[in-house]
Amino acid sequence: MKTAIGHKVYRIKTTDDSFAWAQEYANEAPDGSVFLADQLTKARGRQGRTWEIYDGQLTVTILLKPQNLSSLSPEDLPVRLNQLTMALSLGIITPLIQHGAWLKWPNDIMIGTKKMGGLLSRLIWQGQKPSAIVVGFSLNINNIFQENSQLFSIATSLRQEMGAPFEIRPLYFDILGSLNHWYSLWHTEKFMDIYKSWKQLQGYLGKEISIHQKDGSVLTGTAQQVLPNGDLMLSDKNKKMQHVSFYMVEEIKLAI
């Protein structure tokens, strides 16, 4: 696959919703187009939760149009999308591993015990067929969380952890190059290579966690395994194995 991600860049001063902005260009923009806003006034995380925007963050939205997307069967589509999320997570985190970054299932990027970033994707449909995927990620690079902030106990940035400011532009290009590499592996169906690397960076395996699901239920137990399709296996207090779907997760925490 030729270089795709970042080959075409759209830039705007201000936008409320970068996902909607990228979706407007779904037909004309090439695969891997990047959408950058100097100011993003609103952002959403999983389940529509607000993602706070701060100066010093790196926030990027990407339009992906893989050629095989519309030909995937309804059975294969969720699995391939999960594997794409794995690949993109690896693309984002690979340049950050040297700074101690790790993955918290299903899609958070952590340093130490605090979150420094996250990934979100949205499937675009054309009639009955999927036609594109909008992917957004945001990383705390140079912003600082003060001790009196409600986010201080759960969020961090590279600058806060390393004790020095970072040049965002070189890091941005490193991440684009890394995303291209892992996106190429997904295109060429190197799914087991993606899965093995993704699994190695999962920081909660073997730990007691609580999983808050979309239906309101909470599962508590030991994270035993992440599966090649992106799901997680949890051993509950009765030693019974629970299969947890990526799509059912609202929040995941270390059990207290």
Characteristic key phrases:
SH3 type barrels, globular, seven-stranded mixed β-sheet, single chain, 256 residues, BirA Bifunctional Protein, domain 2, 23% helix, alpha+beta, 12 strands
Overview of this structure, please?
The chain has 256 residues and is of the alpha+beta class. The chain folds into two domains: 9-200, BirA Bifunctional Protein, domain 2 (2-Layer Sandwich), CATH 3.30.930.10; 208-254, Roll (SH3 type barrels). It is 23% helix and 34% strand. It contains five helices and twelve strands. The protein has helices spanning 18-24, 76-93, 158-162, 168-187, 191-200, and strands at residues 9-15, 33-40, 57-64, 101-104, 108-111, 114-126, 129-140, 208-213, 218-226, 232-236, 241-244, 249-254. The strands form two sheets. It has a seven-stranded mixed sheet with strand order 1-2-3-7-6-5-4, with helices on both faces. The protein has a five-stranded antiparallel sheet with strand order 11-10-9-8-12, with no helix packed on it. A hairpin with a 4-residue loop joins β10 (232-236) and β11. α2 (76-93) runs antiparallel to α4 (168-187) and α2 (76-93) crosses α5. It is globular. The mean pLDDT is 92.
